[in-house]
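U., I forgot to send this yesterday:
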Amino acid sequence: MAAEKQRSDAPYCRSRPNLGVSNGFYISRSWIVTDYGKSVPNSDRRELSLYSYVIEKLGGGSVDKPSAYVGEDPFVFVCYAHEDSPAVYLEIAWLQAEGVNLWYDEGISLGSEWTEALAGAIQRCTKFLFFVTPNSVTREHCRRELSFAQEEERDVMAVHLQPTEASSGLRLSLNNRQAIFKHELTQEQYDRELLQAIAGASKEPAAQPIVPTSSRIPRVAILGVAALVIAIAVAWLRNVGEDASFAGPAEVEQRAGTDVLYNSIAVLPFENLSPDPDNAYFAAGIHEEILNQLGKIRDLSVIGRTSVQNYVGATMSIPVIGKELNVESVMEGSVRYADNRVRITTQLLDARTGAQLWAEAYDRKLKDIFAIQSDIALEITRAMKAQFSLAEQTAIAAAPTDDLNAYAHYIRAMALFGQSLRLQPVLAELDAAVSLDEDFALALATKAYLHGVLSVLLVAADAPLTPEGARENVLLAELHAEDALAIDPSQGLAYLALALADVYHGRTTSRWEHSSMAYDRNPNHPFVLFEYGRSNLEQGLIDAAVQAFERAIASDPKNLLMPWFAGSNMRLAGVWDVAKIWAAKTVELSPDSEIGYLLTGQIASDEDDAATMQRMVELLERFGIADPAAAGGLDRIRLISMMQFYRRLGRKDDVARLHAVMLEIDQALPLNNGELAAIHLALGDTDESMHYLNLVADEHFPADVAREVQLHPDHPQWESLREHPGFEQLLGKLENREGS
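Result:
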């Protein structure tokens, strides 16, 4: 009777074969973790493990041992601790019921040599599935199997069944591997993520391609339906100027449908209802802060500011906007600020139907603004049924400053940041905020990030940057970042600033560490994702870089710079197939911009593809330049790249023609040493090119040029320099920047 009583209390899982237990009933896989967590105090978990608890709840029964796959079809290798068998068998049986072929040590036949059988199975598997628990991370056989799988370049995925403390060596082994944390997900989320992750791993590749995760092969399949759009764009690029048919976006969408991001939300710019025009900044600033708050939730996919800014004043319907941004939900609202009171109305809408999912109106004194913002972020998260940790909730609820005047300056800074690329007015507002509250960590971290941008990227400077200016900005970035982190270690932008400073100094290892810490704290910030991808690329972690770049592009789908940046970095790493995809995506986003054609031409130059280079220079010539004295940074990049294309094509007259234009530009606004090195390389003057590259190394400026040579000395663009007697000395000089 006791066993019968126990069975009647246990929740039954969905009807599936092979999930039985020896006493004849089914047990829910989600109930295992949930009930254990509720019933067993932390202090008792060392004596009563999760899996012993399963057996106890079964009334002394045992979980049936599933059969292991035997055959020639693709399969998944399962690595686990035998102490965990009761729960792992349930996972294996469920996956088998979903049609996945799984091999585990039950598949070793009698008389076989155990070690050889394991090694052979690992070598033949299409995916290596490691169930992470406190037991498995301490078992020597699990570590050996994992190490061998990595040596054999198997596709390793870790499924964390419990919160688990692992040794530093094991954490390093699993770092940047595909991972699923079951204990942090609902059962539905876990089922979906696990099946998506191993989709195709036990089926014929021709029917469902496997997404590689541990090789330099481009992970094109992970783009899903969007890959079709990009592939068509690639085909179009290859046929520019030819009489070829091109399927436009509408046709592609009709064929492929839309790939909606998981737990995704687009927060549209808030409508300003403030009666005083001078308070118009308030709506833009609050919108930016709501984006930042939601971005702290790892389980959400938050569309970036650049993409949602396209919908200011838009009259299109919510379903149309949702379809364009590939999101599940859309949030809109309004802000009225007057007489020291703020009224914020918000609503969350189903992106597919436009139906209201949640709505609220807040009418309070300005001093309550932080409580309003945190309440909106958490209520939106709950309405979307997303998971959030106590640490994330605490970070969202914390008031960034006690000084409302300081916060007003910060809000003005955020509003200005969204309006133009000029950063000095933004920094002036942040300076004012910090002058009122020197412990305003968020303002300090934002200052640090912007100075980091100015020190390295040369993109948003109000005036041309000099070596001295870069040095000053990197020092300010480091100073403000350290101050911010001393006050609040959760400031992700401060770590991003340190990662940018590492670019200046040539510190690849600490750059990876800092960008990883930034990603841990701001997992939805597009530029955090981008820098995290770049730092992984520098470490040779190609797949981790691709995943980060893909997420950056998906989280800011209308931002032309995202695929361009990602493609440019993959091109430098020599992963040209992926670079071509993102070059095509750049063109797809803006056929009227030159940067997609520019990147495509650079890849063609690397691959010595004369036909594509020829088509690209024909397109790029259309952009022209009316006044060399007014040439911007992008004009310079385009003209220097075209000089290099023409040189590769043997068109010396065109090289000389563009060189003359560059001399005019230099008269109006002096070229930096990186630009001069590239120009002389295009002219075939390797001595002068080496001279300017040595100046780049000495001055750490431009930092990205030094980085390109240091990290990618074998890249085709340096082919003519590699035979130069000073090239190895240059590399040594660049390497010695580490730690400077």
